[in-house]
Specification:
Elements lengths: L9 E5 L3 H12 L4 E5 L2 H10 L5 E5 L7 H11 L5 E5 L4 H9 L4 E4 L4 H21 L20 H13 L6 E4 L6 H11 L7 E5 L5 H9 E2 L11 E2 L1 H4 L4 E5 L6 H13 L1 E2 L8 E2 L3 E6 L3 H6 L5 H7 L2 E4 L10 H14 L7 E2 L1 H9 L5 H15 L4 E2 L6 H6 L7 H5 L15 H18 L3 H16 L4 H8 L3 H9 L1
Parallel strand pairs: 1-2, 1-3, 3-4, 4-5, 6-13, 6-14, 7-10, 10-13, 15-16
Antiparallel strand pairs: 8-9, 11-12
Bound molecules: adenosine-5'-triphosphate and magnesium ion.
The site of adenosine-5'-triphosphate has 18 residues, from helix 7, helix 13 and helix 15.
């Protein structure tokens, strides 16, 4: 925090009530803040426009003349980076919503609690300094180079891309496996786009989402009157997809009876509509995907072995995101640039600290979860960069970051109960050790004795002063432990 703090920040207080200006100035002057006052919106705007802009503005919502919300809009359009805290005596939902909508950093209720005002000012100025520190962020990718929509320079992803290239020339059946959100459908589409079938349909069928009694009709169609409710003839997906590529997603959820019919399509390229006697020839490439253990299902006879071998001619295993965390910064940039391109956000940068948190997180929902988090954070971010405070609490807490939101610290809204920090994950330990090593090295101190002493002290504290247990915790003898403590 101290590295990013600003020297003597200036704070502009805009309020038509001289008493409020006076008391707020007094509170703020107890820290090293230089306070400027303005008695109405017009004068406040003029000060911001004239520049240099203050580091922070406290702005009253209800003033005679121009309202605070109106002044906020003028200020933010004159200087989109200006941080503004609104002050209000009426904590209505409307004020809160409007304040945030027009880009206020936060709002605070009157009468003030001086401690909360100072905490809020400090948080706002920290965010201001962090945003400035992000400076000229250099994205790791250029979105135009990623028309595939698939990002990843890790060796495992490079292998995936190569395999996609290899299977596009033929009609070989491909089985894509991997956890949810790892990009299985994206890969299937990419194979299709690069194949000679690109100008014919790509149809995705989610086998898990369709009830067993309807899936056959969905895939192969049905004749009129073939079952109750079949009032008209229906053309199935395989027929519609003739010449194209069908993506059978969640194939592990397909009923055995339907599996038999899929096998027939693969073996002889024929289908029959439900309730029909006519055999139809179809030319469809099949790509299947699952996040189930099909091998185990085959052993349990829940999946046909012959179909398994037919589908599994080429296997593409999608790696979980946590196993390729080096790709996270690229995917982050890709997501932000896509959001900007789709006009869903204007945020295109991430602070190095926030990027470190994102890279450390384990991403159980893989790329899909990362995409959602980037969208949420970009919407929440008040400046042009995403800071640690903008990330969802669960991501911050899992990465060992404090989770109390700024509002809670400042008391402007419900104080959240901070979640306990989760046990650090393996790569967060590596990150922590890297940081310790770098810090001690640059301070010129001998690394090992210092670390040993620090850890010994912590172990002793954790074990309530019991040297024997502390030694055990560290994995050394009691004598060795005592030597460490004494060093
Ligand atoms: N390598 C990647 N680069 C950029 N975006 C990706 C990448 N992989 C996946 N995505 C995005 O993540 C989201 C999830 O991908 P997709 O739907 O292909 O995953 P899935 O494995 O089929 O998931 P599920 O098993 O939940 O159906 C999509 O929005 C996709 O665009
Ligand atoms: Mg999918």
């Amino acid at each position: 925090m101290s590295e990013t703090a600003i020297k003597n920040p200036t704070i502009l207080v805009i309020d038509d009530d001289a008493e409020i200006r006076y008391s707020l100035s007094r509170v703020l002057s107890t820290r090293q803040y230089a306070v400027i006052e303005a008695p109405n919106g017009e004068q406040g705007i003029a000060i911001v426009k004239k520049g240099p802009p203050p580091d922070l503005v406290f702005l009253d919502v209800r003033m005679s003349g121009m309202s605070g919300i109106e002044a906020l809009q003028h200020i933010r359009s004159a200087n989109p980076k200006q941080l503004v805290v609104l002050m209000t005596a009426f904590g209505t939902a409307q004020t809160a919503i409007e304040a945030m909508k027009y880009g206020a950093f936060d709002y605070v209720m009157k009468p003030f609690d001086p401690a909360k005002v100072l905490a809020l000012a400090e948080n706002a100025l920290k965010a201001h300094a962090d945003l400035r520190a992000v400076g000229d962020y250099k994205p790791t990718i250029n979105i135009d180079d990623y028309r595939e929509g698939m990002v990843g320079s890790s060796p495992v992803m490079q292998d995936v891309f190569k395999t996609i290239g290899q299977v596009t020339a033929s009609d070989v059946t491909v089985m894509i496996t991997g956890e949810s959100g790892t990009g299985k459908e994206l890969v299937a589409r990419s194979i299709w786009k690069h194949s000679h079938r690109a100008n014919k349909p790509f149809i995705a069928v989610n086998c898990a989402a369709i009830p067993d009694n309807l899936i056959e009709s969905e895939l192969f169609g049905h004749e009129k009157g073939s079952f109750t409710g079949a009032t008209t003839q229906r053309i199935g997906k395989f027929e519609l997809c003739d010449g194209g590529t069908i993506f059978l997603d969640e194939i592990g959820d397909m009923a055995l009876q339907t599996q038999t019919k899929i096998l027939r399509v693969l073996q002889v390229g024929e289908i029959q509509r439900v309730g029909g006697s006519e055999t139809l020839k179809v030319d469809v490439r099949i790509i299947a995907a699952t996040n189930k253990d099909l091998e185990a299902m085959v052993k349990e006879k829940a999946f046909r072995e012959d179909l398994y071998y037919r589908l599994n001619v080429v296997r593409i295993k999608m790696p979980p995101l946590r196993s390729r965390s080096d790709d996270v910064p690229q995917i982050v940039d890709y997501c932000l640039q896509s959001l900007v391109k789709q006009k869903k956000s204007r945020v295109s940068k991430v602070s190095p600290e926030a990027m470190a948190v994102l890279t450390r997180y384990q991403w159980p929902g893989n790329v899909r979860e990362l995409e959602n988090v980037m969208y949420r954070s970009a919407v929440i971010a008040q400046g042009d960069a995403i800071l640690v405070k903008d990330l969802p609490a669960e991501i911050r807490s899992a990465a060992g970051e404090p989770t109390a939101p700024i509002e809670a610290a400042a008391g402007a809204s419900n104080p959240g109960v901070p979640a306990p920090p989760a046990a650090p994950a393996a790569n967060s330990i590596t990150t922590a050790i890297d940081a310790i090593f770098a810090a001690l090295r640059s301070s010129g101190q001998p690394v090992l004795p210092r670390v040993e002493r620090e850890l010994a002290g912590r172990a002793l504290q954790a074990e309530g002063g019991d040297e024997g247990r502390a030694a055990k915790l560290l994995g050394v003898t009691k004598a060795a432990f005592q030597k460490l403590i004494a060093s």
